[in-house]
């Protein structure tokens, strides 16, 4: 009986196999310590922004009624993206602006999430919340891949990104978080020489923002200059053009023009082509005191912030050239070029969120020069709070 009981207690082959499968599944899907740290920073910053969304309108908009907490999140482009999700592209201008200016990826996800009954604004927040968590994890992976000698650099880069002065746009119903959720893993795949995977993620990014075009350019430069290029994978790099051409063809059917997106940008946001020096002159004029009425001083300060963002982007570009990071340099240069050829430079502050080399570079500086890291946080955190409060109270926030 003793031997029979011992034999019965031995694991059966089928049970052992199931245990190995479950163990492998658990190990694969359980977040790594680095990912858990990133998600911890994500949660802390989301809570902070939610607190600001409740308190800022009550503190700074005296007399204004905010019976619904989501009202504070319904600002600026959220109106237009909500309108695309709700009405599509062929129902006029329900938000007061030509909706062809917005790519369909983000509004489509918002519409899908809204079927849960939470509403379009809350759905946009949910999409951005999930996307920013995913993007932060991949930003950490990318930072660690680029600088393997700096242990723990990944979570630091994600923390700095979440706490960026314009970090509120990673939480609001804007496209930045979703674009980064596709762009960051795309670039990590490209750096690893996984070109098909990179092309798929870039194609997804191209459904979200026109910035996907700049990402296509950067991917091509990375492929040509990479030691890991595989010419058999070259056809994959044509894939990102498919959603762009598809969107152009769709707008052609509705508005009769292949360039309806650009025409909408020109009509609604004065983004007609302008020589860079003229654009810079217009921006300096807008940043000067007295250019806007006294009750719109937020516009003056935001244009000043645009000039600061341009300076930071140019410094970043010089650093990338110095490191011979040709793909990343192509990405940043294309982004700068696009913003500097409009009537004036604006929304470049938000676009810095898409520049992953900036946040990785700041993390490197903070690791190698801790006092500079502390100085950066001493400036960035108050700015992030002010920026968020401005957004939640309807001020122009870039």
From TrEMBL:
Subcellular location: Endoplasmic reticulum membrane
Entry-linked Pfam families: Mannosyl_trans2 (PF04188)
Transmembrane segments: 39-60, 118-140, 160-188, 200-221, 233-251, 301-322, 328-346, 375-394
GO biological process: GPI anchor biosynthetic process
Membrane topology listed for this record: Multi-pass membrane protein
Domain of life: Bacteria
Gene Ontology MF: a single term: alpha-1,6-mannosyltransferase activity
Entry protein name: Mannosyltransferase PIG-V
Source organism (scientific name): Kribbella shirazensis
């Amino acid at each position: 009986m003793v031997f029979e009981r011992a034999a019965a207690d031995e694991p059966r082959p089928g049970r052992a196999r199931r245990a190995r499968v479950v163990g492998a599944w658990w190990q694969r899907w359980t977040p790594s310590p680095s990912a858990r740290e990133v998600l911890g920073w994500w949660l802390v910053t989301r809570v902070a922004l939610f607190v600001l969304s409740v308190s800022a309108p009550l503190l700074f908009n005296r007399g204004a009624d905010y019976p619904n907490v989501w009202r504070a999140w319904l600002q600026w482009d959220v109106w237009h993206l909500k309108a695309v999700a709700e009405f599509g592209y062929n129902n006029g201008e329900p938000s007061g602006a030509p909706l062809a200016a917005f790519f369909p990826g983000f509004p489509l996800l918002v519409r899908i999430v809204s079927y849960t009954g939470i509403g379009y604004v809350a759905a946009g927040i949910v999409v951005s919340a999930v996307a920013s968590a995913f993007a932060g994890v991949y930003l950490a992976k990318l930072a660690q891949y680029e600088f393997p000698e700096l242990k723990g650099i990944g979570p630091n880069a994600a923390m700095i990104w979440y706490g960026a002065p314009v970090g509120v746009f990673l939480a609001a119903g804007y496209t930045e978080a979703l674009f980064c959720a596709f762009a960051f893993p795309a670039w990590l795949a490209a750096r690893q020489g996984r070109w098909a995977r990179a092309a798929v993620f870039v194609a997804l990014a191209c459904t979200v923002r026109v910035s996907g075009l700049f990402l296509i350019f950067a991917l091509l430069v990375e492929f040509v200059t990479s030691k890991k290029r595989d010419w058999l994978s070259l056809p994959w790099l044509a894939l990102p053009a498919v959603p762009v051409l598809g969107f152009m063809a769709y707008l052609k059917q509705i508005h009769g023009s292949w360039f309806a997106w650009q025409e909408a940008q020109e009509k609604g946001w004065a983004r007609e082509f302008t020589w860079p020096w003229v654009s810079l002159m217009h921006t300096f004029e807008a940043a000067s005191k007295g250019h806007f009425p006294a009750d719109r001083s937020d516009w003056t300060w935001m244009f000043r912030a645009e000039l600061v963002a341009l300076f930071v982007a140019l410094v970043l570009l010089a650093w990338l050239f110095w490191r011979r990071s040709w793909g990343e340099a192509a990405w940043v240069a294309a982004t700068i070029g696009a913003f500097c050829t409009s009537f004036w430079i604006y929304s470049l502050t938000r676009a810095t969120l898409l520049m992953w080399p900036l946040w990785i570079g700041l993390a490197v500086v903070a690791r190698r020069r801790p006092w500079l890291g502390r100085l950066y946080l001493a400036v960035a955190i108050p700015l992030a709070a002010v920026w968020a409060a401005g957004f939640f109270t309807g001020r122009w926030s870039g």
